[in-house]
Design goal:
By secondary structure, the chain is α/β, with parallel strands linked by helices. The protein folds into two domains: about 160 residues, Rossmann fold (3-Layer(aba) Sandwich); about 80 residues, Histidine-containing Protein, Chain: A. It has eleven helices and seven strands. The chain starts with a helix and ends in a 9-residue tail after the last strand.
């Protein structure tokens, strides 16, 4: 399956001819960026990372390191979603406004290179309620991984076969996904969540398993998986102290049921 999927991806990228890959550093978009570079070369494949307060600094650092390792043509653009009232309102369509901001920022690069903007959407994503995907499709964005039949299992298998260190990278999402719908997204809240998650990573959590610190008013809800959850439940005072010191929450809950969603 891996070989046929990779062959289909190579064929689709060849058909597109020139691409700008929206690259977050996650496993899916990393595979797409790597393959676009391999198939089309640096003159026809650009990896583009959108930077805003909703992107954890650790993800930008990882993109910088990977771009150097893989020899990618890479550019950083700044997106303005936090300046958009509809985005800050954090209703059910927040992701749609974020995607508009991303595509507005990528349009000049794509036009300059006569390229198609590509996203690392996979087959597994299609059943979710993701208004950003609808926006992207309407604006002519391509989903090469979907067209080549890649789900998460295929992404990880192909990445391992290619020797990419992103093969087993835990699922990630923007920091705004930690803020509940109806609570306004602000620079202050995004910063609190990022500081809390950074503190937990310093303790060794979230390095190989998904990890989220979800904002819930005065409380932070820590969601961990696998061995991370087992370890945290044995060390609740340490986890609580780290999150409170970093982000100032009045209370911290280590969710006993663990990580509960893909975002």
């Amino acid at each position: 399956m891996t070989k046929s999927s990779l062959a289909a991806l190579e064929s689709r990228l060849g058909e597109l001819g020139s691409v700008v890959v929206a690259w977050s550093g996650g496993a899916d978009s990393s595979l797409l960026a790597f393959m676009a570079h391999r198939v089309l070369g640096p003159d026809k494949a650009l990896a583009m990372t959108a930077v805003s307060p909703s992107l954890p600094a650790s993800e930008l650092d990882d993109c910088r390191e990977l771009a150097a390792e893989w020899g990618l043509a890479w550019e950083v653009v700044t997106t303005d979603e936090l300046d958009r009232p509809e985005y800050r309102a954090n209703a059910g369509d927040r992701c749609a406004h974020c995607k508009h901001a991303l595509l507005d920022a990528s349009a000049p690069l794509a036009e300059l290179r006569a390229a198609t903007v590509c996203l690392g959407v996979i087959v597994d994503d299609l059943g979710d309620d993701r208004p950003g995907q609808v926006v992207a499709a309407r604006r002519g964005t391509a989903f090469p991984l979907v067209e080549a039949g890649f789900g998460k299992a295929e992404v990880r298998a192909a990445s391992r076969a290619l020797g990419l260190r992103t093969a087993d990278k835990p699922a990630a999402a923007c920091l705004a996904s930690r803020i509940p719908k109806g609570t306004e997204v602000s620079l202050e809240l995004l910063g609190r969540v990022e500081r809390a998650e950074r503190a937990l990573r310093a303790l060794g959590y979230g390095l190989a398993q998904p990890m989220r610190v979800r904002h819930a008013g005065a409380e932070a809800r820590v969601e961990l998986a696998g061995e991370d959850l087992e370890r945290a439940l044995r060390a609740v005072p340490e986890v609580v102290a780290a999150v409170q010191a970093a982000a100032g929450y009045d209370s911290v809950l280590v969710a006993p049921e663990g990580y509960r969603s893909p975002v």
